[in-house]
Amino acid sequence: QVQLQESGPGLVKPSQTLSLICTVSGGSITTNYYYWNWIRQPPGKGLEWIGYITYSGSTYYSPSLKSRTSTSRDTSKNQFTLQLSSVTPEDTGVYYCNLQDNWGQGTQVTVSS
């Protein structure tokens, strides 16, 4: 059973960059055909897919967030990351990392000065 755990600062100032790490256990992020997702849920709204990084390191992002989003990975630590630049209060929400039916517990990120 793959387990995922998000980590990162809970408070980010407007215009700064949000950075999160997802640490994976019980499986390798280089396992063939695995697509590692970032998903968020703003308060009072539904889930929003942000993007993914694949087992080979390829990336793909939501068109609405593409200009501000970057993902990377550290295979030695079995981690993948999310960076979202130029954040605004509208980026506030719970951020999840995900693989198929496996979800992290989520981490609250608040954008506020």
Care to describe what's here?
- With 113 residues, the protein is mainly β.
- Helix content is 0%, strand content 51%.
- The strands form two sheets. Strands 2, 4, 5, 6, 9, 10 and 11 form a seven-stranded mixed beta sheet that branches. A four-stranded antiparallel beta sheet has the order 1-3-8-7, with no helix packed on it.
- Strand 5 and strand 6 form a beta hairpin.
- The chain is globular.
- The chain starts with a strand and ends with a strand.
- The model has no long low-confidence stretch (mean pLDDT 97).
* Low-confidence residue ranges: none
| Helical fraction | under 10%
Radius of gyration over all CA atoms, rounded:
13 Å
Distance between termini? 39 Å
Number of helices: 0
On the 0 to 100 scale, the average pLDDT is 97
Shape: globular
H/E order of the elements?
EEEEEEEEEEE
Q: Largest sheet, if any?
A: 7 strands, mixed
Tell me the number of strands: 11
Strand content: over 45%
Q: SS-based structural class?
A: mainly beta
Note the topology.
Elements: E1 3-7, E2 11-12, E3 18-25, E4 35-41, E5 48-54, E6 59-61, E7 69-74, E8 79-84, E9 93-99, E10 102-103, E11 107-111
Parallel strand pairs: 2-11
Antiparallel strand pairs: 1-3, 3-8, 4-5, 4-9, 5-6, 7-8, 9-10, 9-11
